Amino acid sequence: MSQDLLRRIFLDDLGLKLLSLAFAALLWMFVVGEKRSEVSLSLPLELTQVPAAMVVVSPVPEVVRVRLNGARTLLAAINPQQLAVILSLEGVQPGISAFEILPSRLNLPRGVEVTYISPSVVTLEADRKARRTLPVRPRIKGVPAEGYEVAEMRVDPPQVEIEGAERAVTKLREAPTEIVDVGGLDGGVTRPVQLALPDPTLRPLVQKALQLEIVVRAMRAQREFIQVPVELAEAPQIGPPAWVLTPAAVDVALEGPLLALSKLKTGDVQVRASVDGLPPDGGVVAVAVAVPAGVTVLSATPAEVDLRPIFSPRGAGRPAAEGAAPVQEAPSRGE
What residue ranges define each of the domains in the chain, with the CATH number in brackets? Predict the structure, then answer.
């Protein structure tokens, strides 16, 4: 290197160079001589570069606590909201991996030292992703209004595709919904519901809202009325003045809403035998049972009764059958 070049480097603009050197020295003396301090921060932990085919299945610390030491001016210039601990999971494999939290991950200004990090090592467990289509299972709690029951539950769509950690997806047999309270309901309800998947790694692939329809209806029951008297639907206009039915009473089995059946009395159930078209000497007729609306007749036992005159219309006297009872008198032909 020639003397002219050295002279230009050191002597050209000598005043400006001396001024810059003095300013740098003063700044160094200010920073070094300034009183040092410490500050504690909680920095968010961020995971980056997670492989698309992998998912973290273990709990991840939300923050990393650090203690910094440095000049007050340098510490005051740090904005905690702009700091984060970045943890790259590039190339992570299934299983457990440990990552050391180094001060270099914090990207701090020069002159600031890290004196404390917790946790200093983050241990994570990863698993492969898997998918599976599962039926949706609605969940309810509570009891409907008195006399009512949940008859059916329908959800749309009835199936969803779930993605998550392979071991969690393999164990799952159905996708449960959030719990819906049906306490006190006396009618159906339709409402949107969310899935309540048991593992935090699980998620539905389609975010379409689920619609749950709950069918609530009156509870049904059966009840039997014993020995309900049989009445004549109308009196025959021929034959002798009195008729008898054998048997005079039947057993009636009913089905219907529980509340309605519990309020029925014997007088609310009417059993009649039609005499329309009977020959003068009587015959076997079917019984008809009349009940309040909403109640169904399951059976009448016996379903037929024998209607006979007390005296034969042909003039031969004949007593009524044993156990029979007269039910109605018919007017004579001359009346």
Answer: 32-128 (2.170.120.30), 129-218 (2.170.120.40), 220-329 (2.170.120.30)
